[in-house]
Design goal:
- The chain has 215 residues and is mostly beta strands.
- Helix content is 12%, strand content 51%.
- The protein folds into two domains: 70 residues, no CATH class; 120 residues, Acid Proteases (Cathepsin D, subunit A, domain 1), CATH 2.40.70.
- It is built from four helices and 17 strands.
Length: 215
């Protein structure tokens, strides 16, 4: 009886501890008072003040960011934010764009989840493409776009201003990006213009252009 009582007292005195060693947490989706996260590859739906098996506790969540607590420490993380077990700042998302034989920076990325070939163009105001490219991407530029005129290498031409829901290069994904759809057959590659580039840090290292997402 005394042994049983002693064990019970010891159990009462033991503080809750985290039994799992977490290496990586990724915020995948955010809702009001809920957050979908990936914990070392295991998907968890966090609800307010309901600890996950790993010890994560959601303090608050909106459609833009979540406050998550681990081991008594809290941090604010946006959608797509990465968390480590030490709760350091979210890791920087980067992309490397290599220079081609012609001396231009080109890469493969996606627009609204579909693959495109990008040409980095700091002289382009926005992410620009021709009409056939826009149709392949399912962009209803004539119905939803705003008629404008843009300056190109061949002079002034008509175009449509649109909003691209999602543009991805490497690990960097940006949303609500200004885009131009140009009437005609050019440019051959989609121009990765300043509406995207202004929202990242750029470092020209000669043969490679390093892009880093701003938080």
């Amino acid at each position: 009886m005394r042994n049983g009582l002693l064990i019970a007292l010891l159990l009462i005195g033991i503080a809750p501890c985290r039994l799992f060693s977490i290496e990586r947490i990724v915020v995948e989706a955010l809702f009001t008072d809920k957050a979908m996260v990936s914990v070392d590859g295991v998907r968890r739906l966090l609800k307010l003040n309901q600890p996950s098996p790993e010890g994560l506790r959601l303090i608050s969540a909106t459609s833009k960011e979540a406050v998550i607590e681990l081991d008594g420490e809290r941090q604010v993380y946006p959608l797509g934010g990465h968390i480590t077990t030490h709760f350091s700042k979210p890791e920087r998302l980067t992309a490397k764009v290599w220079r081609n034989q012609a001396g231009a920076y080109t890469t493969v990325g996606t627009i609204n989840g579909l693959t495109v070939n990008f040409l980095v163009d700091t002289g382009a105001t926005a992410v620009a493409m021709h009409a056939s490219q826009a149709k392949r991407l399912g962009i209803s530029y004539r119905l939803e776009g705003k008629p404008i005129y843009v300056n190109t290498a061949n002079g002034t031409t008509s175009a449509y201003e649109v909003t691209l829901q999602r543009v991805q290069v490497g690990d960097i994904t940006l949303r609500q990006i200004r885009g131009f759809v140009i009437d005609g057959i050019g440019p051959n590659r989609v121009l990765l213009g300043m509406s995207f580039l202004n929202r990242v840090k750029m470092e020209d290292r000669g043969e490679v252009l390093l892009l880093e997402q701003k938080f």
